[in-house]
Design a protein that fits this description.
- Helix content is about 80%, strand content about 0%.
- It contains six helices and no strands.
- The N and C termini lie far apart (about 50 Å).
Length: about 160
């Protein structure tokens, strides 16, 4: 009985160690690729058919507020992130990372400010609750796209900021 227990524990240990070490590097590469694919899928910039239909529907639902400039900025940033190259020089990678990160943060700050303006307008009874919620949902969708770009950037450069 003790031999069986020792054999089972030994096999469990061997499988645990072998399973963890063989896929460590592949896992990091696969995560980066998957994140970039998701970001690319959400930002089809060439034809723009998918995004234009979505943005038209969002604008109609968001009480005719035009979010297209934010959508355009997010598409540009996402494209820059996807086209960004890493180098063997870590200081150059940090510089590239933080340049793109500042652009992402700037758009995120603009969206936060816009959300605050909509909330203030609702509190002052300038817009209805339905209009406020529709606009807030549209902003959340834009922030989600921006978050995907930020995740792809962090994965590409291996920096978790």
């Amino acid at each position: 009985m003790k031999r069986l227990l020792v054999v089972l524990l030994s096999l469990t240990f061997i499988f645990a160690v072998t399973g963890c070490t063989s896929s460590t590097n592949e896992s990091a590469d696969n995560t980066e690729t998957k994140t970039q694919e998701v970001t690319t899928a959400n930002t089809d910039d060439d034809e723009g058919n998918v995004n234009n239909k979505e943005s038209t529907a969002e604008n109609a639902n968001a009480a005719d507020y035009d979010f297209s400039s934010y959508e355009k900025d997010i598409r540009k940033i996402t494209k820059k992130v996807n086209n960004a190259k890493t180098s063997s020089n870590s200081s150059e990678n940090h510089k590239r990372f933080f340049t793109l990160k500042k652009q992402i943060d700037a758009v995120d700050d603009e969206l936060d400010k816009l959300d605050d303006e909509f909330e203030y307008a609702y509190q002052m009874k300038e817009i209805s609750f339905e209009t406020y919620k529709a606009r807030e949902r549209a902003i959340e969708k834009l922030e989600d796209k921006l978050e995907l770009a930020e995740d792809a950037l962090e994965n590409k450069y291996g920096i978790d900021d």
